[in-house]
Amino acid sequence: RRGASLSDLAEKIGVDAASLVQVLFHLGEMVTATQSVSDDTLEVLGAELEYNIEVVSPEDEDRELLESFDLEFGEDLGDEDDLAARPPVVTVMGHVDHGKTRLLDTLRKSNVAGGEAGGITQAIGAYQVQTTIDGVDRGITFIDTPGHEAFTAMRARGAKSTDIAVLVVAADDGVMPQTIEALNHAKAAGIPVVVAVNKIDKEAADPVRVRGELSEFGLIPEEYGGDTQFVDVSALTGEGLDRLLEAVVLTADAALDLRANPDMPAQGVAIEAHLDKGRGPVATVLIHRGTLRIGESIVAGSAYGRVRALINDKGENLTEAPPSMPVQVLGLTAVPGAGDNVLVVDDDRMARQIADKRGSRMRAAAQAVGSRRKTLDQLFEQ
Ligand code: GDP
Ligand code: MG
């Protein structure tokens, strides 16, 4: 495991962490129990205790599991000839109270007003809006959980579900600590940023100052010769939101190659899931590639099932969901975790086998943590 500490190892093999610290001390390494140690150190320690320690990350373990079923998650988006454009997936980030929630709400509502009459959007964790650029209809998918925490948690689990970050900065407040944090997360993930300079309806708004402040952090506005789009908006009045959508699409077109084969077994990631009293487990899935269809066997983390219904952000029942479309999936036997990968597999049997293996692995890990600790003496006595 990456970043494992002596306490982690002690739990795994059922010994006292203090003893491990001692053994390492005698080997000439001074480490505390909670400090994370290198994989090499773990292996050396294992050899000393006559344990054969092989460091395997959960990601590697899962990759091997899928490989044993001739499956692979995430890498294969299709052959060059089969690729079709897909909408960008956007996460809204920024400092608290700068207007992330308001922006997401206004975008969702304004799209309903301009789109199909009477459509009311459902809170399903993500939604898609349409904008017209050069006479062409373009979709944009927004993940509805603002803040970089959800983003970081998903990324830590290897779920690459965001293409572009919209960084919201209140023009009356300027760049704040979480603005920089959000920016650093986007940088670390290699995700392009579009800046929404918000609250321009306010008297104290100073959008020029925001441009200057962010320039110091490497986000240079296009109008100053840089390559970052800054758009002045008001999440309150809706001013500038069309230009914001346009900036997102233009940034996607300039910086990213967003294509996937829609004609493959679908794969995606669960961005939200819960247990619904009437409908059972409900997961919102963002499709990465392929098209998810009713009746297909799927595995989602350690849950599995057959797709019974697909529901979009307007509450409409669909028969299929293409790449970048957020869709509620009904028919799972359990509630998957946010960030869990979702795969269409050959049949129910395969889905169940993969889910069961993942489930027992998770239980084993939980048990290891709870297991009784033995002293090193007891260990040597065995
Ligand atoms: P979050 O913490 O980033 O999600 O911020 P919110 O969306 O909750 O907004 C914080 C406060 O700012 C709320 O009272 C919003 O109504 C207000 N607000 C958000 N956007 C604007 C805007 O464009 N103009 C004005 N005047 N107020 C805004
Ligand atoms: Mg909020």
TrEMBL record:
GTP binds at residues 94-101, 144-148, 198-201. Residues 85-256 form the Tr-type G domain. It is found in: Cytoplasm. Signal peptide: none annotated. It comes from the Bacteria. One of the essential components for the initiation of protein synthesis. Protects formylmethionyl-tRNA from spontaneous hydrolysis and promotes its binding to the 30S ribosomal subunits. Also involved in the hydrolysis of GTP during the formation of the 70S ribosomal complex. Belongs to the TRAFAC class translation factor GTPase superfamily. Classic translation factor GTPase family. IF-2 subfamily. This is Translation initiation factor IF-2. It comes from Tessaracoccus antarcticus. The gene is infB. The chain holds residues 384 to 765 of 974 of the full protein.
